[in-house]
Amino acid sequence: MSGTLVLVRHGQSEWNLKNLFTGWRDPGLTEQGHAEAKAAGEKLKARGLKFDIAFTSALSRAQTTCQHILDALGQSDLKTIRNAALNERDYGDLNGLNKDDARAKWGEEQVHIWRRSYDTPPPGGESLKDTGARVWPYYMHDMQKHVLAGGTVLVAAHGNSLRALIMALEGISGPDIVKLELGTGVPIVYKLNADSTVASKDVLA
């Protein structure tokens, strides 16, 4: 085995609670979201995990989640790299809209296609495929080397940027990856082989 890669979707945000399309907008965590992030740290602590480096997005909900996890592990000052490559999918014209209002405006079927198709973006936004096009190179060039060197790496990011990463790690197809649901604040622990394939996966729900 080579190293360990831990993926965590941020805790519940204020806009998750309000059923709004969030995308690249930057609301903070709810009280529940802070609790979820802290609980994620405790779960990882119970596993005896310590990180060598952390990666997160340019958005505060992921950064706060990352910090809560590191605080729980006594690693508050760990080197943490923030990069927009790990940002949530950009929902374009849907950003900030209530999902029910969007359905009323464009129709339930069209909104469902934008949300759950792999390669159809909403107006002015990104598809999951587009999101992957920035996540995959960043993982390959900046993150993977730490895992393959035997390190333990934390990634605190978003539902769709993590879906794109999981798609590459596990070799999941486009139609199947959009069906994958990621809980807020739930750590996914991967052990990778030296050839970068997945040796094991453990979801700490």
Automatic annotation (TrEMBL):
Residue positions of the active site: H10 (tele-phosphohistidine intermediate), E88 (proton donor/acceptor)
Q: Output the SMART domains linked to this UniProt entry.
A: PGAM
Q: Which Pfam families match?
A: His_Phos_1
According to its UniProt entry, the protein's GO biological process terms are: gluconeogenesis; glycolytic process
Pathway per the UniProt entry: Carbohydrate degradation; glycolysis; pyruvate from D-glyceraldehyde 3-phosphate: step 3/5
Residues annotated as site: Transition state stabilizer? H158
| Keyword hit for Protease | no
Per its UniProt record, what Gene3D superfamilies does this chain match?
Phosphoglycerate mutase-like
InterPro entries noted in UniProt: His_Pase_superF_clade-1, His_PPase_superfam, PG/BPGM_mutase_AS, Phosphogly_mut1
What does the entry list as the binding residues for substrate?
9-16, 22-23, 61, 88-91, 99, 115-116, 159-160
Q: Per UniProt, which keywords does this protein have?
A: Gluconeogenesis, Glycolysis, Isomerase
What is the reaction catalyzed? (2R)-2-phosphoglycerate = (2R)-3-phosphoglycerate
Database matches in CDD domains: HP_PGM_like
Instruction: Output one GO MF annotation.
Output: phosphoglycerate mutase activity
Is Isomerase included in the keywords of this UniProt record?
A: yes
| EC code | 5.4.2.11
Record function comment? Catalyzes the interconversion of 2-phosphoglycerate and 3-phosphoglycerate.
The record's listing under PANTHER family reads: PHOSPHOGLYCERATE MUTASE
Similarity-based family: Belongs to the phosphoglycerate mutase family. BPG-dependent PGAM subfamily.
Assembly with partners or alone:
Homodimer.
Q: What is the name listed in the Swiss-Prot or TrEMBL entry for this protein?
A: 2,3-bisphosphoglycerate-dependent phosphoglycerate mutase
Q: What is the originating organism of this protein?
A: Aminobacter aganoensis
> Source organism lineage?
Bacteria, Pseudomonadati, Pseudomonadota, Alphaproteobacteria, Hyphomicrobiales
> Which gene is the coding source of this polypeptide chain?
gpmA
